[in-house]
Amino acid sequence: MKYLKGLLILVIIYTTSCVPEFGDVGELPDDPSIIEILVGNENGKIPQENAIDNDTKIDTIWIKDKSVDFGSMYAQGNLQPGCIIEPLDGSPTFGVYGDFSTPRKYRITAPSGNFSDWTIIMDYYVPPVGCLADRWVGNISCTDGVWESYSPTFCIGEKLENDCKKLKLKFDFWADATAVVELEFQLGDIDIDTFTGSVTLVNDVTFVSYGDEMTFHSGAAGTYNAIANELYLELDFSGYDIGADKYPFTVKQIN
């Protein structure tokens, strides 16, 4: 009997010690920030990427479909636990179609009451281009567009002055070891919609091959394609009758 009484006392003590006191309750979440914003239109969810800057409180949403109209979209918030979001300055309410063609402001409030004002920006995603000239540096392929069988036996690309828009090509014209040509090009600004741009030959280059003096003339010299990593050269040419005024070369990386 004494044993049972002792055991009962221990159970009561243990049970009492496991009851949490009011001061043991955890703190409320206190991070009024964004995990991800999802957007869509009448066709459903839109492919996107969030670029969240917690320092400036800006979430730039990169939209991967350039046909999307920012003037008619809806947004849904994936926020830190317990947070709520409310529009500021006439911004569209989340979950309702609205105009996101300009930056929109929202207040995010954490359960603790702490809040932060965020800006949400929509913009079209642009894949990174990188250094243009690097696509044609080192040993590359240069194909003669007039007589392919006379294509250079070697072709070397060099980035000039560490400038991604300056490129020099060195090759043996008509596979003639005595006619090594060096052409310096300026690569034009890229068109982000097509990832193409212009190519300009900087200086006239005169050389002799098989007894004829020939010149590649400075000026517009073709285009580049930054996706295919190819140069489509159309060089002003004189000194030998090739049946045209432009001498074509295709320049590309060696696989």
Short account of what is shown:
By secondary structure, the protein is mainly beta.
Describe the overall structure.
The protein has 255 residues and is mostly beta strands. The protein has one helix and 18 strands. Strand 7 and strand 8 form a beta hairpin. The longest helix has 16 residues. About 4% of the residues have low confidence.
Number of β-strand runs: 18
Major sheet attributes: 8 strands, antiparallel, barrel
Q: Tell me the domain tally.
A: 2
The overall pLDDT, averaged over residues, is 91
Structural class, from helix and strand content? mainly beta
What is the strand arrangement across the widest sheet? 9-10-11-12-13-16-17-18
Radius of gyration computed on alpha carbons: 33 Å
Binned strand content: over 45%
Residue runs with pLDDT of under 50 for 5 or more positions: 7-17
Please give the alpha-carbon distance between the first and last residues.
91 Å
Total helical elements:
1
Short descriptors:
6% helix; mainly beta; 255 residues; Immunoglobulin-like; eight-stranded antiparallel barrel; 2 domains
Layout: helices, strands, pairs:
Blueprint: H1 2-17, E1 34-41, E2 44-45, E3 48-53, E4 58-63, E5 74-79, E6 84-88, E7 104-109, E8 115-124, E9 138-144, E10 155-159, E11 166-172, E12 180-187, E13 196-201, E14 205-209, E15 212-217, E16 219-225, E17 230-238, E18 246-253
